[in-house]
């Protein structure tokens, strides 16, 4: 009899506890990170029988949780990158406010000037449109610089969040160690791990119950036992040797290999999105300036003065940043020498033993110079001249320069008034000496001004070494010719015909304005000029930068969608195991309620049995 | 698979949100009429469209240039037409001058008209282009192409080279011909310039000049001076004083590859100079004819001189007419070049516009179909969600 009571009582207790678990599950149906709990029952082992409560179990699958952490890391990176790159894309307009539209309107104004050079107001329009081109370059660069700043701020905020979660995890580790594992603590831990995976992409190598350690891909611990390591994001102007993310206290670079999580996505958007585009914009600006300045300088103003530079902003004497560990006082500079040959990259200069110097292009890690320090400045490397400005470097010293990032922001109109626009062609006069008969096209649009002051181009007839004749200017430019056939001497674009000449004969060329209202140089400037060594025009150049920005944004969007899907998939798998289903709980509620009622009934039955027995005894 | 309640609601909300976003984008496309909302929707299309836009802008620039060129060429054409009428009238006056019955009053009338015609010619040469500068001043942009001095001599103020205007990708057109070349360097096809000396006392008049032997003529050291002996003989000396062989028979003088036909009889000591033919000046022509009209016609020697002078002036007049005529036909061919470029570029423009439209403009049929489809899907998803979320076992637990 007492056995029956005992059995029923254990059943009542067990079912009551089961109902409580169901209640807990229902209560937490909308709690983020809550894992469904189940009461684990077993047959009581004692001779009295009944049911034993083994404990509350947390539904948990190690692989489902690990898959979710990985997916979270990917999703954090992809969504941060996609949103940064879509912001980057908006800087590159395709409508009337775009840089290419500004080029187009400037060309329109120049074409009008070439057709109607005497109409007043046309010059002013050209001047204003040129100013718009400069302003558009500046505003685009400012937009990109602002975006860089915004990304840096966002990195700072992300790092703050990571630090918060990491210290929470360290405290949780302490609690887990002190009081042992419990479903509530494990829920909290899993949720923190998910958040950290989303923010920084780190996940523990070992999962399961109890305390966990977290490491960054560089091997830097983020949380080790009860200790959290604090990260720091670099703020303000960041030099080429400054790491973007450091570990507080040690200054170690923590960004190495960091790809996952929002932080990894932001770093990627910075290094593979915004910075390269900003360099490409600088490359476009420098190449455009180079070409336009050269052509403008070859023209003449209405007053007959030779034109100068149209825009200012060609980079010159940029100081190279010395690495923090450099031992000597050497200082290097870089200047743009050939704007059309520039590459959108940063450069690292390394001094080696024996006065050897290596210059590496960092975007594809290729060596562009490997030779003596003394010969460094002899020839431009990728359109840049590197030279030792002062001091003497020591072996092992390193320097970096990012010549084009921000170059677009320094573009200005170099003219003070429309009257300084040099829109007229040159009239070229030749003085012949030695045995030579030659004619020079009298009026022509030159593509570069004659060198020197007063401007003068001296050409000498020489043997080309293989039986032919060649014209040289003594500055490395040469043009072979056949007597009687017209030739064009580049880079000045001067056309002449030499009917007969002997070696040693000289032609001295001078240029003056072809007329106050010629407008021929405007015609040359108004065309879609090739500004890059590849022959691409400024409009093509802008299209390429825009295409790169839009393409990257498009790919990042797709990646973000895919990452979202994989998070949805991983969380569905985890939820399938750990989520609360209300219908299921309702059924359980009924099930346990019925079992409880049944157990209570057993007690009633036992009681009536007991009463029957008492009645027999009485 | 087991579905948790939280997951059901979350997934449904996500799905509805995604459908709504897609619907909104479709609506934006429909209201904007653009295929792409942002460049990243189709980066290569965006880049190609940018290039097509630049190409179309370029064609538009050529179009504007052509328009201003056409305006200018039309002005050139009307000016040259007026000038050629002017020269025609001068020709009529020259014929009147040659009339043997010309009276003193007639001559005065001719002189007055010649003066008027000269100032008209000067005004025409100073015509302004539609843009305000002198039409024939080359690249100088001055308000006047020619200035007349106190002595009646006209000087050119412009430059020798014309302006260039771009009317097509590889086509430039010269505008604003140099007035100096057009009016003051009038070419002729006469082999030489023959001048009979003012001091001649005979009645020789040059009737015709032919080139028989070009190499022999080009070898001569011009000018040649022919001196008649009045008895049918001549002596010819070249620039250096060397004697050159020459024959004179029946009024036909043959020297240095040239044949000169003379009428009348030269006196002993009369001379004639053969010099290289020189370029003429339109404005000097009027003065020359004025001088001719003032010459005496008596006696016979003066009459011969008058005839020679008139003939020389008429020759130059013919040259000027030819020069103006060929300038007009040059303008005509430029106008037809404009027309040709216009036709060619219009076709090119259509092609580019079609390409850009294919890239940029919305395919409404497809877009509306998609919109309808998305709308239906969203409605279905919404009604499915409400139906399913109503289904809870708790609703049956009473």
Describe the protein.
The complex is a heterodimer of chains A (618) and B (398). Chain A is an alpha+beta fold and 618 residues long. Chain A folds into four domains: 2-59 and 579-617; 65-271 and 537-570, no CATH class; 316-403; 426-513. Chain A is 44% helix and 20% strand. Chain A has helices at residues 2-27, 62-91, 99-115, 122-179, 183-200, 261-297, 520-525, 538-578, 582-617, and strands at 37-43, 51-58, 214-215, 221-224, 227-228, 231-233, 245-247, 311-312, 318-319, 321-322, 331-336, 347-352, 356-361, 366-372, 384-390, 398-401, 412-413, 426-433, 436-440, 443-444, 457-463, 469-472, 478-481, 486-489, 494-501, 506-513. In chain A, helix 3 runs antiparallel to helix 4. In chain B, the strands form four sheets. Chain B has a five-stranded antiparallel beta sheet, with no helix packed on it. A four-stranded antiparallel beta sheet of chain B has the order 6-12-11-10. At the A-B interface, helix 2, helix 3, helix 8 and helix 9 of A face helix 1, helix 2 and strand 3 of B.
Strand content of chain A: 15-25%
Can you tell me the CATH architecture of the largest domain in chain B? Up-down Bundle
Helix content of chain B: 40-55%
State the helix count of chain B: 8
**What is the CA-CA span between the terminal residues of chain B?**
29 Å
State the helical fraction of chain A. 40-55%
Order of helices and strands of chain B: HHHEEEEHEEHEEEEEEEHHH
Measured by DSSP, the beta-strand proportion of chain B falls in: 15-25%
The secondary-structure class of chain A comes to: alpha+beta
Structural class by secondary-structure content of chain B: alpha+beta
> What general form of chain A does the structure show?
elongated
The CATH top-level class label of the largest domain in chain B: Mainly Alpha
- CATH fold field value of the largest domain in chain B: f41 fragment of flagellin, N-terminal domain
**If you average the pLDDT of chain B, what whole number results?**
88
Strand order of the main beta sheet of chain A, please? Answer: 20-18-26-21-22-23
How many DSSP E strands of chain A?
Answer: 26
Distance between the ends of chain A: 18 Å
Low-confidence stretches of chain B: none
Tell me the number of strands of chain B: 13
Mean pLDDT of chain A: 90
């Amino acid at each position: 009899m007492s056995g029956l009571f005992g059995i029923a009582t254990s059943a009542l207790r067990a079912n009551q506890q089961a109902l409580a678990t169901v209640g807990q599950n229902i209560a937490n149906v909308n709690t983020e990170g809550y894992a469904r709990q189940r009461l684990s029952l077993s047959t009581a082992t004692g001779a009295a029988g009944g049911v034993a409560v083994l404990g509350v179990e947390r539904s948990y699958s190690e692989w489902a949780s690990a898959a979710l952490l990985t997916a979270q890391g990917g999703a954090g990176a992809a969504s941060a990158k996609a949103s940064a790159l879509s912001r980057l894309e908006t800087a590159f307009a395709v409508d009337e406010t775009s840089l290419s539209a500004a080029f187009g309107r400037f060309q329109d104004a120049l074409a009008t000037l070439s057709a109607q050079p005497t109409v007043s107001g046309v010059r002013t329009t050209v001047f204003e449109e040129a100013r718009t081109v400069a302003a558009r370059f500046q505003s685009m660069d400012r937009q990109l610089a602002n975006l860089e700043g915004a990304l840096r701020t966002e990195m700072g905020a992300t790092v703050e969040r990571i630090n918060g979660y990491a210290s929470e995890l360290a405290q949780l580790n302490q609690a887990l160690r002190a009081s042992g594992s419990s479903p509530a603590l494990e829920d909290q831990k899993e949720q923190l791990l998910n958040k950290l995976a989303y923010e920084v992409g780190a996940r523990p190598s070992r999962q399961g119950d109890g305390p966990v350690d977290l490491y960054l891909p560089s091997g830097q611990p983020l949380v080790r036992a009860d200790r959290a390591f604090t990260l720091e994001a670099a703020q303000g102007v960041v030099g080429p040797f400054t790491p973007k993310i450091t570990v507080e206290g040690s200054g170690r670079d923590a960004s190495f290999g960091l790809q996952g999580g929002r932080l990894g996505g932001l770093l990627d958007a910075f290094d593979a999105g915004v910075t390269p585009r900003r360099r490409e914009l600088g490359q476009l600006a420098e190449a455009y300036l180079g070409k336009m300045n050269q052509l403008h300088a070859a023209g003449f103003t209405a007053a007959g003065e030779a034109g100068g530079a149209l825009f200012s902003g060609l980079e010159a004497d940029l100081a190279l940043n010395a690495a923090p560990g450099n031992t000597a006082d050497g200082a290097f500079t870089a200047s743009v020498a050939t704007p059309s040959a520039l590459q959108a990259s940063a450069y690292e200069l390394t001094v080696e033993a024996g006065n050897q110097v290596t210059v590496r292009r960092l975007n594809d890690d290729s060596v562009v110079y490997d030779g003596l320090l003394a010969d460094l400045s002899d020839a431009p490397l990728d359109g840049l001249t590197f030279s030792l400005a002062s001091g003497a470097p020591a072996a092992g010293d390193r320097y970096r320069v990012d010549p084009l990032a921000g170059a677009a922001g320094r573009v200005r109109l170099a003219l003070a008034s429309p009257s300084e626009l040099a829109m007229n062609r040159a009239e070229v006069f030749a003085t012949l000496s030695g045995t030579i008969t030659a004619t020079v096209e009298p009026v022509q649009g030159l593509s570069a001004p004659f060198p020197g002051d007063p401007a003068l181009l001296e050409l000498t007839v020489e043997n080309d070494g293989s039986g032919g004749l060649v014209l040289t200017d003594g500055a490395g430019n040469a043009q072979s010719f056949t007597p009687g056939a017209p030739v064009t001497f580049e880079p000045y674009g001067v056309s002449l015909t030499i009917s007969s000449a002997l070696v040693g004969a000289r032609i001295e060329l001078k240029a003056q304005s072809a007329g106050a209202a010629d407008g021929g140089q405007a015609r040359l400037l108004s065309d879609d000029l090739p500004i890059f060594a590849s022959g691409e025009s400024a409009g093509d150049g802008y299209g390429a930068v825009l295409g790169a920005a839009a393409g990257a944004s498009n790919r990042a969007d797709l990646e973000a969608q895919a990452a979202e899907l994989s998070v949805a998939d991983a969380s569905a798998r985890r939820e399938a195991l750990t989520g609360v289903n209300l219908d299921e709980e309702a059924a359980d509620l009924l099930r346990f309620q019925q079992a409880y009622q049944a157990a209570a009934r057993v007690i009633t039955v036992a009681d009536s049995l007991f009463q029957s027995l008492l009645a027999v005894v009485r | 698979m087991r579905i948790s309640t939280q997951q059901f609601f979350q997934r449904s909300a996500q799905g509805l949100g995604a459908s709504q976003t897609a619907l909104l984008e479709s609506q934006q496309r429909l209201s904007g009429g653009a295929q792409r909302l942002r460049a990243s929707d189709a980066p290569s299309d965006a880049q190609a469209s940018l290039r097509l836009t630049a190409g179309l802008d370029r064609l538009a620039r050529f179009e504007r240039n052509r328009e201003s060129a056409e305006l200018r060429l039309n002005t050139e054409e009307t000016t040259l037409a007026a000038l050629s009428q002017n020269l025609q009238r001068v020709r009529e006056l020259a014929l009147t001058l040659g009339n043997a019955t010309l009276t003193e009053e007639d001559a005065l009338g001719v002189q007055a008209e010649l003066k008027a015609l000269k100032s008209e010619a000067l005004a025409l040469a100073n015509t302004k282009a539609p843009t305000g500068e002198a039409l024939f001043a080359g690249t100088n942009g001055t308000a006047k192409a020619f200035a007349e001095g106190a002595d009646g001599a006209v000087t050119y103020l412009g430059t020798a080279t014309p302006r260039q205007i771009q009317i097509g990708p590889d086509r430039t057109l010269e505008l604003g011909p140099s007035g100096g070349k057009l009016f003051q360097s009038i070419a002729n096809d006469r082999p030489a310039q023959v001048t009979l000396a003012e001091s001649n006392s005979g009645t020789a008049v040059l009737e015709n000049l032919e080139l028989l032997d070009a190499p022999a003529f080009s070898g001569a050291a011009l000018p040649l001076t022919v001196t008649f002996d009045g008895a049918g003989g001549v002596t010819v000396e070249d620039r250096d004083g060397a004697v050159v062989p020459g024959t004179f028979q029946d009024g036909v003088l043959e020297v240095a590859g040239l044949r000169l036909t003379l009428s009348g009889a030269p006196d002993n000591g009369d001379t004639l100079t053969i010099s290289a033919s020189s370029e003429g000046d339109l404005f000097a022509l009027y003065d020359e004819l004025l001088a001719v009209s003032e010459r005496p016609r008596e006696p016979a020697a003066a009459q011969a001189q008058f005839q020679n002078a008139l003939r020389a002036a008429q020759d130059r007049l013919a040259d000027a007419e030819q020069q103006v005529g060929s300038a007009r036909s040059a303008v005509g061919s430029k106008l037809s070049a404009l027309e040709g470029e216009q036709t060619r570029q219009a076709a090119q423009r259509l092609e580019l516009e079609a390409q850009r439209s294919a890239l940029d403009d919305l395919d409404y049929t497809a877009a509306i179909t998609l919109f309808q489809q998305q709308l239906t899907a969203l409605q279905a998803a919404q009604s499915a969600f409400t139906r399913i979320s109503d289904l809870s076992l708790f609703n049956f637990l009473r």
